[in-house]
Amino acid sequence: MLRIFTLCLFWLALAAGSVARAGEPPVAMLKLTDEDVWVPGQGSYAAEFNRWAWLNFGAPIAPEELAMAGLSAGTATTFSRSREAFSAPISTLDQDRLRAFALGRKLFRVRWSGRSTVQDGFDGLGPTFNRNSCSGCHLKDGRGQPPATVDKPMESMLVRLSVPGKSAHGGPLPHPVYGGQLQDKGIVGVPREGRVTIEYREITGSFADGEPFSLRQPVYAFGDLQHGPVGADVLVSPRVAPAIYGLGLLEAVEQATIEANADPDDADSDGISGRVNRVWDPVSGQQAIGRFGWKANTPNLYTQVAAAAHGDMGLTTSVFPQENCPAAQAACAETHITDAPELDDARLATLVLYTRSLGVPAKRDVHDPATHRGAEIFDDIGCAACHTPTLSTGSDPALPELTNITIQPYTNLLLHDMGEGLADGRPDYAASGREWRTPPLWGIGLVHRVNMHNNFLHDGRARGLMEAVLWHGGEAQVARDTVIELSSSDRDALLAFLASL
Ligand code: HEC
Ligand code: HEC
Question: Looking at ligand 1, which residue's alpha carbon is closest to its atom 20?
Fold first, then answer.
């Protein structure tokens, strides 16, 4: 059966004239449309086909490399380094869930429209929104970036807003006129709220060996505000869309594991604390530990996806049933037509399953001596104190396929004070204006290939991995200062290691 599948794929690849040349991913072969993936009534065949395409093509990782790799995520590791590297489902996914995955992929990629202009049920966008599809921001399940120039709109990032104080559940207090997020688009007849532009100030410095570097500090400005000025006390947090692969595994790490790594009062005096965020979960109606978002500001993928649908696209759900129209925005409120959720529970669950079941690409070039040396440096100079190399998932995750897996995410999922340079000054539940959640580093070496850019950190200001490291301050100041002292070959080794993840 397997052989037949593989043969079929070869035949199809040949027919499409897109068999991989050495070192070049067969992109054409992998460009399956949503229709290819989701054929009603034949979903499992199409999805099965797609799974094999993902696993077996696209510059797969060589067996000898794999043998030494240490899998990024055990049985949830995927083996492509093509532009589709972030888009493959966990290969052990059960047939029914694989079928749901294919539908979830469609929901994630489809462009939603404003009221009832289409017949297929993908309407309900807005009244105000940031983007008309999830994948518009999380392109190819990867990460977003800031606009290339000051006059271009934000296409894969958004700006959170609040005013000083806390909401009833301890979260940020939404801005009275613009709400918790600036929506820079509106459906026909509804004005956008406004927009934010970014200009950069260059800051120069040099490594101990004299090699110069330059960092760009973003300066944000509001423009085109439709409901008056935001006021002097507004708190602003611009954030790019993070990648969404491997999230089911991070959700499956037990709370006790995360708490065990926390050291809120720095009891071991290593200069690194690490705090758990505690947030409100509207689904359970209780406090929960935060895991997702740049400040660990949402508790789980169900709430996260419902919040994204609501805040970023204006799709109501049973979790957030009201349209996102602050009282001052009359045209927004007047478009309200139906009380039924625009994304019903079944579709919401399918979308959540999708974000739970994307696997993690295997490491590459692990036997390269520079990668080896880089891994040692990463450990020695304290990067691993926050970017924890190894964690385990628990025994009772949302999907049985995620049970008891040893993963290498390079995050502790904890909040750290990263200093004034990175601070947004906007608290988010227990996270202060200087704290950010350690982001996972797995797959980070493939961002340039999948997303065709090299922008890192919460607002995409870093133009490469070294710039991202050089912005580290606060609890990571010592590690950053040690990087400044490294020889140029050790710096290259550290970068080679990051690129191998
Ligand atoms: C306008 C761009 C944009 C759109 C559209 C968008 N997102 Fe996001 N997404 C973001 C940003 C920015 C974050 C980080 C939010 C934060 O830190 O508060 C995020 C975070 C997430 C996360 C958590 C990732 C992590 O590593 O913590 C998931 C899951 C997610 N989004 C899913 C979705 C889904 C599903 C949709 C469609 C319903 C969607 N997003 C639409 C920008 C977007
Ligand atoms: C005190 C904890 C801590 C230490 C130590 C630390 N980091 Fe980080 N790292 C973070 C946090 C938190 C962020 C996110 C900051 C932001 O986006 O503003 C981050 C971001 C990054 C990023 C960008 C990730 C992304 O998704 O954009 C890279 C790369 C990185 N760190 C590498 C390193 C390396 C290499 C070292 C060692 C020199 C190191 N870090 C030490 C906490 C830490």
Answer: 293
